[in-house]
Design goal:
By secondary structure, this protein is an alpha/beta fold. Helix content is 36%, strand content 19%.
Length: 556
């Protein structure tokens, strides 16, 4: 059966039952049909004095076409923890429509480790992304209208940094010229679109602690600069109130369930290669207050998602993770070791040994850079051979880390019980010494170098002439103390997607810097990373359909 067929065959429980299992009273629920609900933020205020559960991050090796199964492992681990008697709650990101219709298809887990209703989650869900896009584009409209109506703020149209947004992969919109057609149709200027998950408003929503904080962050968003180089904010345009009104429901975490009835918060969805890659702080905090174990994930490999989870999300929200899971597959490691995609199903110990440094470096970073205990989850494929699996175990043991088989795709929570027991052991017997890759405050360049050298193993950082000018301006404006958000290819530790495995000594090139003052970080764009993806030659949308009974097919 396909993922969507498994999800459609499941007998979901009413969301009130899932809420009761999590300890959420009915008065905190805002229903979106029978199987989805938003949870009022007042729940966190009421539970402020309750102890937090253990926070477990699921991350992975650098992704490959062979697949890793990070979200599947996250869901399966939460189910497995319940099976061994631990009260768990899972917290995930919402899928973006761009990848759903582009490369990946659905993104709600897979096999027998999924969150449901899968079709709703993968498509419009509760409308959060639409609200974020509307708030983004309201700000863009008010900005251009301000210029059209006389430009009292003296905004330089050539220095506008705020772009429009749409939640779709559409390369045609990366760079456009708008305001054409005569004076009554606006002021002509160069413009462009980002995918909604790259919008600063997505980051703001996911990092906000409450509605007041959301509004304050929206006010600080910088949309451009004046002719005399002063930043212009959404607050200057008097747009923050209306934007916050559009987001008043989107800020509330969404409650759904896994196939096995484990409570799941699915909320927010910034990409990890171009944004900070984590679900909302509010959803994570709810999971911590409601479960003994809060299991969450961060996008792409640990060099991106985990780094940003630790250095941005945990720093801003005061979160203290207890352990991490690094997901890998034998197939993906062989790809990192140089095996051709067509040969990944064949036993190849040489390619596996050559690719294992990618996994081992991520493990080393989790333990040595961030001070956390971790376990390797080997997401098992039917083609994996026992000698290959033992080689992974052996090299992990040599580094003092256990590697555990995960079969949650095929068996659900039952296939993750060994992994769950190891996570419990790490959280109860090991002593985390959590720390960041760089300290608070200071200047921007040392932070860029800390991530590049300590996490990526680069030899150094080189800034383009444009980036050097931007660095000087941002620090002069007082933004040097902010953390950095690296926009980098997900396929490599380096900024070159073709450098697989564990490259080191390379030069990381930062081509431009941009402050996200509302989110509270500075984005460093490296390599050829883009904030608006394109569709592939054969997009997943070609295989998605719906029948006359309303039954969707082809999501995955």
């Amino acid at each position: 059966m396909t993922d969507i067929e498994i999800a459609q065959a499941a007998q979901a429980e009413p969301i009130d039952s899932i809420a009761a299992r999590a300890g959420i009273e009915p008065e905190y629920l805002e229903h979106y049909g029978r199987y989805k609900a938003k949870v009022e933020l007042s729940l966190l205020r009421e539970r402020a004095g309750a102890p937090d559960g253990k926070l477990v991050l699921v991350t992975a090796i650098n992704p490959t076409p062979a697949g890793e199964g990070k979200t599947t492992t996250t869901v399966g681990l939460a189910d497995a923890l319940r099976r061994i008697g631990r009260r768990s709650v899972v917290a995930l990101r919402e899928p973006s429509l761009g990848p759903v219709f582009g490369v990946k298809g659905g993104a709600a887990g897979g096999g027998y480790a999924q969150v449901i209703p899968m079709e709703d989650i993968n498509l419009h869900f509760t409308g959060d992304f639409h609200a974020i896009g509307a708030a983004n584009n309201l700000l863009a409209a008010m900005l251009d209208n301000h210029i059209y109506q006389g430009n009292a703020l003296n905004i330089d149209p050539r220095r506008i940094t705020w772009r429009r947004a749409v939640d779709m992969n559409d390369r045609q919109l990366r760079f456009i010229t708008d305001g054409l057609g005569g004076r009554v149709n606006g002021v002509p200027r160069e413009d462009g679109f980002d995918i909604t998950v790259a919008s600063e408003i997505m980051a703001v929503l996911c990092l906000a602690s409450d509605l007041a904080d959301l509004k304050a962050r929206l006010e600080r968003i910088i949309v451009g600069y004046t002719y005399d180089e002063r930043p212009v904010t959404a607050g200057d345009l008097k747009a923050a109130g209306a934007m916050a009104a559009l987001l008043k429901d989107a800020i509330k975490p969404n409650l759904v369930q896994t196939l096995e009835g484990t409570p799941a918060f699915v909320h927010g969805g910034p990409f990890a290669n171009i944004a900070h890659g984590c679900n909302s702080v509010l959803a994570t905090r709810m999971a911590l207050k409601l479960g003994e174990y809060a299991v969450t994930e961060a996008g792409f490999g640990a060099d991106l998602g985990a780094e940003k989870f630790f250095d941005i999300k945990c720093r801003m929200a005061g979160l203290r993770p207890d352990a991490a899971v690094v997901v890998a597959t034998v197939r993906a490691l062989k790809h990192h070791g140089g095996a051709a995609r067509a040969d990944l199903g064949r036993e190849d110990l040489a390619a596996l040994r050559a690719g294992l440094p990618n996994l081992l470096r991520h493990v080393e970073n989790i333990r040595e850079v961030y001070g956390l205990p971790c376990v390797v989850a080997i997401n098992r494929f039917p083609t994996d051979t026992e000698p290959e699996l033992e080689l992974v175990r052996e090299l992990c043991r040599e580094r003092g880390v256990n590697a555990v088989l995960s079969e949650v795709w095929a068996r659900g929570g039952a296939g993750g019980e060994e992994l769950a027991r190891e996570v419990v052991r790490l959280c109860t017997e090991e002593r985390p010494a959590f720390r960041f890759a760089y300290g608070d405050g200071g200047e921007l360049l040392p932070k860029l170098e800390a991530v590049a050298r300590r996490v990526y193993r680069a030899g150094g950082v080189e800034l383009s002439a444009q980036a050097r000018r931007q660095l000087a301006q941002l620090e002069a404006l007082g933004f040097g103390s902010l953390p950095v958000c690296m926009a980098k290819t997900q396929y490599s530790f380096s900024d070159d997607a073709s450098k697989l495995g564990a490259p080191e000594g390379f030069t990381l090139t930062v081509r431009s810097l941009k402050v996200s003052a509302g989110a509270g970080f500075v984005v460093a764009l490296t390599g050829d990373i883009m904030t608006m993806p394109g569709l592939p030659r054969s997009p997943a949308a070609e295989r998605i359909d719906i029948d006359t009974q309303g039954r969707i097919s082809g999501l995955f």
